[in-house]
Specification:
Length: about 250
């Protein structure tokens, strides 16, 4: 594996347009469970679809119950070695941006500027009104729920919802287009902790591959691109990314 890590680090150290793409596998090491694997979030809760949320107060109450149950873990989570390694690469000028499927905000907490993190599935630390679009903090909504308002609404009368993409909800066009542009023009594309099966996010490595970018994958399980990448590492993200960042610093 050492040879593979060195090859990835040398490619990063060359500079150019280096992009990282992250999924749940980088955040599980911070204690955040993923969604789809056995024991994941959807094993514990039946997801509330977007049309249910918008049409039924009972569904909104159930949705907020689920979110409150999940927030304790999210509030305690902190960036791990993987997040910190990507932040180190950014600080060295060796990482242009991060495209993420994650909704936990840990990349920003690790020190990556918010405008350099493209959040394809939103951010659970924000709350958005489904009518006027105004955003507020999770803390405000949580306090209202604890005070006895199980499905809080905006001052305009719209439904408040964590600023994340639910099943059946349209993807954020601006973010998807930005991610596609970055992927289609990069020199190096690093996938971390994603099975690459959820679309349109899963198309990003394909755009990078078509553009001739060097494709590296760090993931514990199989992905559809394992045979199409230049480097494949089946290990936990934290130690691997830490080693890669340290090597890239030496090779720079």
């Amino acid at each position: 594996m050492q040879d593979i890590l060195e090859a990835i680090a040398k490619k990063i150290a060359e500079g150019g347009r280096n992009i990282a793409f992250t999924g749940a596998g980088i955040s599980t090491e911070s204690g955040i469970p993923d969604f789809r694997s056995q024991g994941g979030i959807w094993d514990q809760y039946r997801p509330v679809y977007f049309d249910e949320f918008m049409s039924s107060r009972d569904a909104r109450v159930r949705y907020w119950d689920q979110k409150i149950a999940m927030w304790d873990g999210l509030e305690k989570a902190r960036p791990n070695a993987g997040h910190q390694a990507l932040a180190k690469l950014y600080d060295m000028g060796l990482l242009e941006a991060i495209i993420t499927q994650n909704i936990d905000g840990l990349h920003q907490e690790s020190g990556i500027p918010g405008d350099k993190v493209i959040e394809l599935h939103g951010n659970t630390r924000r709350v958005r009104c489904m009518t006027c679009g105004e955003t507020s903090t999770v803390a405000e909504a949580k306090q209202r729920i604890l005070d006895g308002d199980p499905a809080p609404e905006c001052h305009c009368g719209g439904y408040l919802k964590p600023d994340t993409i639910s099943f059946g909800q349209a993807m954020p066009q601006k973010e998807v287009e930005a991610a596609a542009r970055l992927s289609s023009s990069c020199d190096f594309f690093l996938v971390v902790g994603s099975t690459l099966v959820v679309h349109p996010a899963a198309m990003m490595p394909e755009y990078a591959r078509r553009a001739g970018a060097y494709l590296a994958i760090v993931n514990l399980s199989d992905t559809p691109y394992d045979n199409a990448c230049q480097a494949l590492v089946r290990e936990k993200a934290g130690p691997v990314l830490q080693a890669i960042a340290d090597m890239a610093e030496e090779y720079r």
